[in-house]
Amino acid sequence: MKKLEIVRLIDDKLYQKNNLKKDMRGIVIEEKMGSFSVLFFNPQNIGNYAIVNIFAKDIVLEKEKLPDEIQKEIWVKLGNVLSKAPNYLEPVQIKNYDIVELIVEDLKYTRFGIHKGDKGCVMDAKAVQNYIEVDFSGINDNREFYGDCISVKIEDLKVVIK
Predict the structure, then answer these.
(1) Domain limits of the chain?
(2) If you count Cβ atoms within 10 Å of the first and of the last residue's Cβ in the chain, which end, N or C, has fewer?
(3) What separation in angstroms does the CA of 89 have from each of 29, 51, 118?
């Protein structure tokens, strides 16, 4: 296997601590003696990634290839990625339809009429760069609609009801 080839994890026993699962695909970053540094992207949190050392016996080469322009982009940014990469994928603890409470007062939320203490329902727990979609809307006593459905940083929320 060569650098920037796509591989598939066929045995996840040693990598469960890294939150990797069987059949996850990754990109070979570096070959070591009998193992490879493989870049995996988090399917639960787009923009989140990990580089994990994987034994050669636990992966297989995929037929698909990265397009040349993506390979060039990876090479350009690889130094920055390597310096920041953890060796595990961070799981998203919040699930679809959890009721959450906003625990911060911040302009990025107040401009939508959402304030600290407001409760909402998680509409999609698949995160994008640690933000999830939360519906803070409702109908008040006067039968008027209020609130909005917005992206909220996961760390700005507390789960109230699972």
Answers:
(1) 6-84, 99-161
(2) C
(3) 17, 9, 30
